[in-house]
Structure prediction request, 360 residues.
Amino acid sequence: MANVANNSNITLTPEGAVSVSYNALVSSPLSLTASIEKAFGSHPDSLGIIIVRDLPSNYAPARERLLRLAYRFANLDPKIRERYADPRSRYSFGWSHGKEIMNGKPDTMKGSYYANPVIDEPNVPAELREAYPEYYGKNIWPSDTPEVKDFEQAFKDLGRFVFSVGCQLAVACQPFASSYLRDSSMSLADLISSSQTVKARLLHYFPPSPENPLPAENEAVDSWCGFHLDHSLLTGLCSAMYLRKQPSGEPTVVQSPSPNSGLYIRTRGGALTKVSIPADCLAFQTGEALELATSGKLRATPHCVRVGAAADAENISRETFALFMQPNVDQQLSATENFGQFSKRIFDEHYKDEAAGAAM
Prediction:
């Protein structure tokens, strides 16, 4: 998978992303400081993303199980899907489609299912629950829809696995991050592991359609999902799965419709780079909460998703899963904002009004 960078023990993917072994992450996280600095530092060729390889054998089937369920849910009758939407939380729990504003218009290219895979119902005071329904609401599960009867367990299994790896990564990040944090007593691992705001987003990218036609040859690089920053401390990402619709029965797993399809990142120096996450690996990237907590020294990772023009693209969807690891709402990030205040500001920038929905 990888090459070793010059004069170091840092392992890189062919595209230049830093790669670390899960075994090292668990057994000797503090030995990975050089890799963490290369991945998340301010050097112009740093990508702001790190790949974790050599994962336990239960990861691959958990990923495939949930991503296939993403496809099934997204292909339910729209009336059934909307039963699991939650306007009160600004669509931050359950199903969300067409609520987020991307590239200046409602995003109908993808549908999302949000839940906290770690805690079903946060244990917080009533006033916090009322003030921050986007984070402190109750999970919504499609338990009464037989087509996706295993949805809750599959979501929790994958989400909790990614969360556990993310907590290990936070431990490995601490020696590097501590010198940049506004409050040097902050522990990334503690902020994440004790948080009740963890949020996962299961994503289905719909194939091109008459409403969202196949891109032209001069397709924009962010044609499937516009350039944006996550507002987490760290975000865990699964490798996307591409599924081709069949006339009957289950869809089949296929390669991406085009070599140009997939995730794109801007390096710290501004260069555009396509990043592939192997199917048996996880990736983690930095979010805006970390940028704020370090006064801009550790920057969030700008990223987008491209369809990739191809003859068969109208029959192929993209399924993936992201886990946003972030602090509780009362955690101070800067001199003027805590995480809750920051989040409200971001929601208001991306949605028309308070009832329009929220993306984490």
